[in-house]
Structures
1.
Amino acid sequence: MELHLRVLRHDPPAGGRGLRPLAIPASNPTMSETTMDNVIEAPAEAGVGSKKLFENDKVIVWDFVLPAGQETPVHMHNHSYMWFAVQGAPLQIYDEHGNDVGLFPVPTDGVFELKVEGDTIEVMSDIGKGVKVPSKHKAKNVGNETYREILVEWK
């Protein structure tokens, strides 16, 4: 099975449609419910994770959980980062004004690296490579399972 990523590029190519489909391999979407026991739900204020696990002068490590049907507040990524999808799900991405940017189907066990430059995030990892989204955005879990990732920001 193969999933397709359709993300509206932040800088649409001249003469292009603005949508860039990318193939992402599907993964096993199962995860034990007991792994969710110690996770705190996302706070009302904007942030890039549900719970900060660790911070020093080089990195910030976040646990991020997004139940099916829920969305994050609008938040800003100021640091380049990577994440590991503990439990994947399709994430609908919206810019800060609520405009649909595209669907990002994150596979379980997927590893992503993202570079933040000003108001743009570019996917650098093999999965989704070259896709760009606004650094200020929100995401909605449009899947049937709770989404979970471990995110590491580089300072």
2.
Amino acid sequence: MSACAAALVIYTLEERNAGSAEVICQETLYFHISGCRWALERLSLLTPCVFPMIPITVSYFANHSSVTRVGAIRKAAMYGLGIMLTFVVLGMSLALFFGAAGINKLAANPWVNLLITGIF
């Protein structure tokens, strides 16, 4: 059983008791959830979609270094907004074209998944 699941079980069992045990359990639950979140965030950096982007992002900011802190923050904000807007526009366009459930049906299609598997 993972630490997250154990913390939830402890919280559920201790939830019935009143007093300081509940406060301690809530603090323990928060600590375990924070620890699990931190670990999962670090593991997500190793996924095939994110890992190749790390050197690209670092080289972008290294090659486009600003003289001032404000300039660096502005460039970082524009970089992040550019990524967000790209996915929002792409997602909205696909939703308008295929409908809200259309993309889900396409993603669940076994032939599409076999094609993607064959490509990669």
3.
Amino acid sequence: MSDAEEEFSLPELSPELEAELSAETGPVLVADRDGVILFINEAAASFFGYGKDDLWGEYVEVLLPKNLRWGHQRYRMGFWAEPSEKPMAIGMELEALHKDGELKRMDQIDLKPIDLDGNQAIICYVRLPQA
């Protein structure tokens, strides 16, 4: 590991928060202010087709179709101008990119900003279509 890698560390979830989010039955992920994934629960790993630890340190945009990634970065930066708990993209068709390249439909994503030891982060609760 290089000196730069040793000095850089991502914020960590408290054991209590990690346990709470792990218990969620629907997909949940946590990302920092820059969009770096800090946590996904088992339901999110299954939905996106990755192992639970495969996405740690990746940008959330890896989960979006390529044509939406740039725009999402702008929306993400705009969110932090006035962070608040709210649903994302109401009335829009939301799609995620599965690891195998398949597009997966989502009904809604609920956003909840949180503080992780002085670092801004966001919890994303993915709401899936009812079967």
4.
Amino acid sequence: MKALIERKTPGTQAFNRSPRTEAGCSCGATINAEAVTEAEIKNTEQVLRIATVSTALAFGALAASTEALRSNAAGFCFQASFRTAVAAVIGGAGAVLYWKLAGRGLADARKGAWLLVLAGLGFFLYPLRFVSPEKLAETLQGLAFAVVALSTVGFMLWRVKRFLDEDTEHAKAIEAATAPAGPSRSA
């Protein structure tokens, strides 16, 4: 599988595109940066490989443990079976799919992120099947309270991020407006 790595060499305005073997990069990402060195490309590929493998292992373990969870008279236990292995493979494949989507661009990365969020919610809510009908109302009340509390914290963090991004843009605009003009070059 080939990835297209875009490089902009210092002092030029055009991109130099050269095909490059991914060297095991499982996400298929396209790297686009100014003055990208071979070491930076290799580091990026290694980080993406680590992120892909670790996410796949985590989602595989999550899917397997969720499938293996059983209820018995003594409480809960894990019963591994062939279905557990299949769930692990499917969970890992879902995480690899996410990183492949993330490598395509921001819009696909957002779609993949929503898929991960929905899968996470499914894994979180799946054990509710073991809650007795008498306790289900109380459990759902507690979950609703937790959702409201976490959503409030998430909203506040999102607003702080937006504020800081706007402040950064404002500071850059002020800096650009007050910066002295450099010497002009004639072509």
